[in-house]
Amino acid sequence: MLDIYESYTISELRTLLQSMGGAPGNKKKGELIEEIIKIKQGEITPVRSNRGRPSTKAKRVISDSSIAVLNDINTDDEVSVEGILSVTPLSLVGLNFLPKVPTCLVSPQFVQDYNLIVGDKITGTMLLNKSLNVYELVCILKINDAEPKKGERQNYFNQEILPITQKITVSITDSVTLKLIDLFCPIAKGQRSLIYGASNTGKTSILKELINAILVSEKSLFVALIDQRPEDVSSVKHSSAGGIINYTTFDMGTDCHITLAETTVNRAVSLATEGKNVVVILDGVNKLVKAYFAKLGDMQKALLSVKKLLSVALNKKGASITILSFCNIEDTDEDNMILDELKSVSNMIICLDQMLSKNRIYPAINLNHCECKNIYEILNGDIVCYDLIYKILAINPLKNAEIIRLLQKHIFSDRLKDRLQELLLLTENG
User: Could you tell me if 228 and 59 are in contact, meaning their C-beta atoms sit under 8 angstroms apart?
Assistant: First the structure.
């Protein structure tokens, strides 16, 4: 319980204690936390209340309201509210970024009764506490779009970790890019995937194709576009058939980028706790590292913060979180260092090649630098084409462009294996 309050500022603790009927005075942070806990546990009786009687409210966790405009409502009545449970009073509303949205305080009695966790989507009603000038949640109608139930919930992080062997069904249709990914670097439940490349190598095109392809089999899809150009955001949103797409643009502060990423991941953990398989796409992970660096002032701490977010990608018994990270890397020492660190925690890597894109060879995937852990188990025996491509590149890595051209023509043909075998013989004979 102590850890919950450590993240609060002194100002927030004083407001909280006052709302519980306590007397903040000039007490230090530790004293404020101690008194809040004692009031909650019933060890002491509040000396006063904002309404003249002992407060029945306990601790409060800051949550974000989804009411975009509150100027035209009757503040004497209860107001419908929907938002994502959070411990930071920032303006993420239902995972849609809005500036200057009022927060809604949530009683810890609700947190305790319903075992709420950060990232839960709460639907209910709130009421304005005029003496504190804050909104308070007075009724919970739904939790994660389901009827609220009291009692224990499974802890996602305490569940048994399973091997990454179950491939996510991707709707390929006639896409050469998706077929190649499914053939050489398949996406599996619980993966931490990294797709990286320089500018103009086709990352956004792959991102848009993957969103629609994954939605066919995985309904819980969250996309966070971090520090992006507005026109790119618009392009992705207009081309997607669904999913929850949230974004920050380059004119927003570093705290905005960090909050978007953290809230998206927390939302995924919340749904995984409900026993769902969740896919998260983070576009601009390198920019997220730089945002943490600007905030923390230390690159190692910034990298560790991003790794903690990526670490939730696991295949658990009864649930999973899959994270696909997109990263724009230029040829600088800083970007190369960030890339190496991200590679070290990824178990599926796709490299996009600038030379291929300049020669208009798409998808511009450099198969020499792609890898996928447990690929034989994920492909479940369908490994003939993979082995042929791997053997060709092992003999002559320069055959990558030729393989991509061959796949463009024959990847949907029944003769693909024959064509790859012919290319392998030609490569072996020099």
Answer: no
